[in-house]
## 1
Amino acid sequence: MHAAPTRYQLAEIGSLLADPSRAAILLALVDGRARPAGELARMAGIAPSTASAHLGRLVEGGLLQVLDQGRHRYFRVANDQVVQVLEALPLLRAPQQCLPKSTAGTRPLAFARTCYRHLAGRLGVAFYEALRRQAWIELGEQSVRLTATGIEALQTAGLLPHGAGQALAGRGCLDWTERRFHLGGSLGVAITEHLLRRDWLRRHDGSRALLLTPPGRSELRRLGIVLGD
């Protein structure tokens, strides 16, 4: 069990998230990719020197980590717990302030997106619910595991490496647009990577949004995952 944060720790985290430029940097990294400071500065619409100061604070505060690749430095979120917190923050607001349920399917990010590196949005929730409905996963106290039937089904569909099913653990991740759970953890990441490799999903305009291709829609329907238009 993790100890509850002190008021000072909570205030420190709040101060890191309070600046719009730092918030923009964090949101640019929620997809799990590592990006250089110059690219993050452009994405946040700020000067490189300003971005450098913000990145320093985020690294010092434990929300980002630095990857040194030769002469180049890249930044990424420290872990998926950071992303989980960022995704959950909109849920603290009143329902009418969040994305309207009636329009969720019409917005690319709400329909399908990456949450850290796993599938989220309406498609992610539908995928998770289909796994549960067909008893392809079992929910433990600390993790979500594939059943033998689930391993066979996903391996047959080409969404899971052979021999990896038992080793991968997932978790339920609360989706901020749908307010229901999608599949996170290493299991969710592995499945999402294979959805992209098989071209069932495609990245959209360099953002976190994902596009469902016609073959992907057809193949997901075979797996019992059906989405209305």
Note: The first helix runs from residue 7 to 18.
## 2
Amino acid sequence: MDILKFLTAGSVDDGKSTLIGRLLYDSDSILLDQLEALQASNRKNDDGTIDLAILTDGLKAEREQGITIDVAYKYFQTDKRKFIIADTPGHIQYTRNMVTGASNANLAIILVDARKGVIEQTIRHSFLVSLLGIQQVVLAINKMDMVDYSEETYNKIVADYKVLAGKVGLKNVHYLPVSALKGDNIVNNSTNMPWYSGESLLHFLETVELAVDTSTEHARFPVQWVVRPQTDELHDYRGYAGRVSSGSFKVNDKVTVLPSGFTSTISKIEVFENEPEEATAGMSITMHLADEIDISRGDILVNSNYQPLVSQLIEADLCWMDTRALDTTHTYFIQHNSKVTRCKIQETLYKVNINTLEKESAEDFKLNDIGRIIIKTADPIAFDPYEENKANGGAIIIDSRTNVTVGAVMFRNVAD
């Protein structure tokens, strides 16, 4: 059974937490003790029903204000699929939290209030989803019960969003009229909107196809650990342990070690006591090579016929996550897969106003700012453009003074 990781994003009071609560409640995915606590809660809707948003708003401040601040993760499954939900905050000051929740998502549910339509926050969330390379998007037009389940209202919002999707580069968008409060089209199809002949949200989530890249073109294996037992029984044993980040490797494939550029062939693949002929993305393996090569943690093995870019000067998009502004004179750490090296932000090219999508002057980079930069690294980094291979196209910036993660990076190309 595969796992679908998805996030919810929307403006304040669009009903993100309520939608997730309804999804869990109506699909019978709530544990008995959670159900008892929910029923005992004194937080009710205007009509006296239980406020299902309590299921995801775990912080005390969230419960008091009725908003989402942190990223809340929920897990559930049906007979067809397992799910990991990231309920992300909609406020602009929590942009970094949304980026964190979106970093590993396969799908995004963007909520729009049927009474308000496409607004500034919708533009911001759609831009972030596009920036982070999420391929599947559901536009959930919520609170349809408050516009009398109007087909005309739904059609206007769909038309407006199609224009926005074209601007930010979202291609696979599925449109869905829902009422999280009443349960319309969440788990079961609604009888209040006979004009809508599509599927419910849960049915779509259960059946949407997940793109799995098993090609050799993006075969990438970052080395986590060099296995050298040096015992009498395993005197000559030399294996390279790690997780295949993307693509696939087969025994006898020719591989190149980067950044050194040495080449060899795969002699054996180990998974515990098994020796499969092929290793695909997500598998944790120990790889053996036909030749003894100097390889260490942080190196990456790739298919020799399809090599990534290697450079110390990289153009990238940056989301700044620290209350202390970016300092172009300071030396930071950059971590790309298992490789950690020092770096400087050589140049800030521009910032993006994520409410209007306009490019602005980048004299300073502060908390939640997003824009284009040029990074100078101490050691070469072997990377793919983020839009081509997310698994090998992202990195984090770490403050060398505090060891705090201060930035998320999406590599775009070698800088001129």
Note: The longest strand covers residues 339-353.
## 3
Amino acid sequence: MRSTQRVAVSVAVVGLVAAGLSSCSASSGGSSGGSKTLNVLMVNNPQMEALKLVAPEFTKATGIKVNFKDLPENDLRSTASTEFAQQANQYDLATLSNFEIPIYAKKGWVADLTKYTSDPKSSWNGKDFDQSDILKPMATSLTVNNKIYGEPFYGESSFLMYRKDLFKAAGLTMPANPTWQQVAGFAAKLKKGSTAGICLRGAVGWGQVMAPLTTVVNTMGGTWFDNNWNAKVNTGGFAKATNFYVDLVKKYGEPGAAQAGFTECDNAMIQGQAAMWYDATSAAGTLVSSKYGSEIGYAPAPVEQTKSSGWLYTWAWGVESASKKKDAAWKFISWASGKDYLNTVGGRTGTGMGWANVPAGARASLYTNPNYLKVASSFAQPTLAAINSADPNNTGRSTHPPVPGIQFVDVAEFTDFGQKVSQQISNAIAGSTSVSSALNASQSIAQDGVKAYKK
């Protein structure tokens, strides 16, 4: 979960509906305007900034005006959870992730979009939306009971990025499918002076340290909970993975790892201060144009007991059930998540434009587009392979809680207990507590967090 797109959040998805919370005013994105006006709540990431720049073209083509309210991710999640839970109808649609959408769908907070996806007449330009072109893992993560509740704007999995020149100088060869033990061995040999052998997130946050760590937990046979919601945090594969992760980053990782997230590791790779980095596939777009861009290689997420271990994340469009403008909202979605939009952004220059900046990770056709491959040839196929190998309903574990999610547990309470556990793990990385103590505290936190689900 990319930092500028998916930073750690401690806001519970459904815990913000207490009386007294104020709604946004019409002037800040509220339900002003008539049937030809949409109010859109979205995260203020670079891809969304580019979308705002070209949105007037959507208005010109459809006559539908779009009012955008863009917020930092923490604020976006807080506002969206209140908006959708209350069905306040201040916004017609919002950027939601594959964490929120299944939860919201089960509560009836987001609209079923299934009928629109197969009706060309409902789209912005009268053409087929081509739902079959949406990458299957992304579509699956936004589908509940065979009904589609969201359409991805862009998405990601995770993979291992590494400096080919440093590997060559050290006489090392990256395997086609590396294991975590191999990666640890490489990190030990590659750590030299101010260059870290590997960069791994250690910062507090369920979307920071817990995102990569949970994928290590998965592949080492661990799980947050078994299928009866018994916490398994201080035992088995979870304990093994956490000990491994903390030891790896403390011995061979970046300085100040307990405060490092996506942005810090991204900067370390750009500045030549790390030989490897395990993180979001979306990072490749920033690395390819950096000083060492031509020297960066990409390998699948390291494994141990499973065939693959990458995560899955997407920012997607969800329509509020209370919206009275669902048809217009779909027209916007069919434009913003459609094939033509990629060509619109890719074919232009300027802030946020160009093929390196198109919202990737959502449509299969992008990965056969020659214009995109000209700038993304080094990482396009590794990215596609990583996403296609990620199954939100099956991480390869023998036992798991009865909810989807790879790098998260898809219950609203996870934003609270996942955040608290992340603090414990970050403390262990900082050396202010032992891994054993951190895991014992986390066991109690996790079990208490799901007490509502225990039979």
Note: Residues 55 and 66 are 7 Å apart (CA to CA).
